[in-house]
Amino acid sequence: MWRRIFISILTFVAGLYFFFEYVMPRESGLTDIMPEIGPRVIIIGVTAIFLGMINLTRMHLHKVVRRRPGWYNSLACIIAIYVMFLLTVLQYFFPKTAWVIHTYDTFFQYVRIPLDATIFSLLAYYIASAAYRAFRIKSVEATVMLAVALFVMLGQIPMGQAITRWLPETGYLSWFRLENIKLWIMDVPNSAATRGILFGGMIGTLAMSLRLWLSLERGSFFDAEV
Amino acid sequence: MAANFFEIMERLDRRWIYLTVFVALSIPFFIPIPLRIEVMPECKDLHERIEEIKQQNEKDPDNAKIVLISISWSANVQAECWPQHEAIAEHCLQIGVPFAAFSFISPEGPQFGEYVLDSIKRRWEGIKDEDFNSDDEELREKLAPLKRRYDRMGKNWREIQYGVEYVNWGYKYMDLAALMTMISDLYGIFPEDYKGAPLQDFPMMKQVKGFVDCALIVEITGSGTLLTWVMYVTPQSGSDLAFACTGVMAPEAYPYFKSKQIIGLLSGMDGAAQYEKLVGIKARGRKGMESQNLAHLWVILMVILGNLSFLYKRKKDRDDSKK
Q1: pLDDT tens digits, residue range B93-106?
Q2: Angle formed by the axes of helices B14-30 and B284-322, nearest 10°
Q3: For residue A118, what pLDDT is reported?
Q4: Are A114 and B74 in contact (CB under 8 A)?
């Protein structure tokens, strides 16, 4: 109970500082304290990363020990975490040792980068398939969206832009060049919609921040012992 | 015949779509496609701003400013962010605007910063000194942007002087408080560069106290980091902000470009290709655009075919129900 009250007070005071630092003039001196706070916040963040690593290890180790379904994936995860962790630490302490540099680079360049890039690249295939299946002119709204998407896609690529390249580069007719149509769509309707979404999102963020600041937010661990 | 075709299209297995997209992406690896890249204002503005910084630094060398590249990208978005980073770094190196790189999102960022520079160096190795004054007018024209570096540095133009032209601050986990600290007190957060050398000792860092001394901050990212800079950092530091992001994130950034809160915007690989054109190189951006170009066209064609088969099916269903 007392720990919860302590955390609530600490959260409120910390929030109060950041609130006043933002709204008060520079002469208040609150901004001058910022260099003292920044490095300390880094320590909190790094501790959180370390805790996350311990937590991941516990969770996956538990799966491996109990031979839960897919335990081998957990084992691979543990090995991956600790091999890279160890290599990074070794590289820090022995920055000129050839085998350390070579092993780290091999893992980073030929395992980590291709894996990460490959997983993300799969999106292109899923998007193409999804566009084929879902982009259908089922209603007026869907038709408008499809038309806009086609203009933006064509305006984005040189082969699309080539369709209207015969139009002059300046003057009224240049407005109908595909790259300019795309720019107009992005600049005007898109900006208006994005602003609207952002305003809505920001009001939600403000409400959520207030709840967090005042410790009103009942998250997953509200009733758990902290 | 047409009926059969549309029925097949309607039932098309997704693996055929994957295969054809793969083919479309692969063709330019074997058959280069000449493309004319149109440079858009959002890209041109960024280029012009870096040129302005060069002029300002020449006028007032005692108060020289740097460009800061924030590497908030990693391997997953390297197809788009690497070429953006490479083109901007190449431009700074060509004209002699000192630039720093750091990361607060991606722990791998500083390493990618080094890989990008290695890539630039490798490309430069393929250029001979004689090429700058070649009789071939086309070649001379192509190398004209890089010649500015050759004219400035002479025979040593291929050497990137660490600490003079470029510094890698490294990566630190940080949130808003730390980032705001860096506005005026960089060395409180980054006392050393990514290799552990004292940051303040580097010649180009002598006049840099924090973000306030960065004339331009370029955020290269695949994440939603724009608001952090727009809301908290640049209004206080007074630096200009440019945003280079993945294609899917660009729509979110356009309102800020329109309101001049960001002075330049590179959108995905297309933005990188445009910048490469401005700095006279053909690197990953322009090469990658060939694949992206064909893939986009293919997706457009697939969407059109998908809709034709959908309309055909709808008509057929209506006709059947009337019967």
Answers
A1: 999 999 999 999 99
A2: 150
A3: 92
A4: no
Confidence of residue A57 (pLDDT cuts 50, 70, 90): very high
Q: How far is the C-alpha of B239 from the C-alpha of B68, rounded, in Å?
A: 10
Give the nearest chain B residue to A142 (CA atoms): B307
CB contact under 8 A, B195 and A95: yes
The pLDDT value given to residue B174: 81
Which residues on chain A are in Cβ contact (under 8 Å) with B185? 34-35, 38
User: What residues of chain B lie within 8 A of the CB of A96, using their CB?
Assistant: none
Q: Does A147 touch chain B (CB under 8 A)?
A: no
**B15 pLDDT above the threshold of 60:** yes
**Residue B211 pLDDT > 80:** yes
For residue A223, what pLDDT is reported? 59
CA dihedral B157, B162, B165, B170 (to 10 degrees): 140
In angstroms, the Cα distances linking A68 to A63, A78, B144, B233 are 5, 15, 63, 47
Res A74 pLDDT > 80: yes
A95, A132, A190 member nearest B306 (Cβ): A132
Dist. CA A119–CA B292, nearest whole Å? 18
Q: Would you say B289 and B35 are in contact if contact means Cβ atoms under 8 Å apart?
A: yes
C-beta of residue B42 within 8 angstroms of C-beta of residue B258:
no
Q: Which of B287, B285, B249 is nearest to B87 (CA)?
A: B285
Interface list for A 185-214 with B (CB within 8 A) = 186-187, 190-191, 194-195, 198
pLDDT of B292 over the 60 cut = yes
Surface of B (4-43) touching A: CB under 8 A: 12, 14, 17-18, 21-22, 25, 35-38, 40-41
Percent of chain B whose predicted confidence (pLDDT) is above 70:
99
B283: how many CB neighbours lie within 10 A of its CB? 21
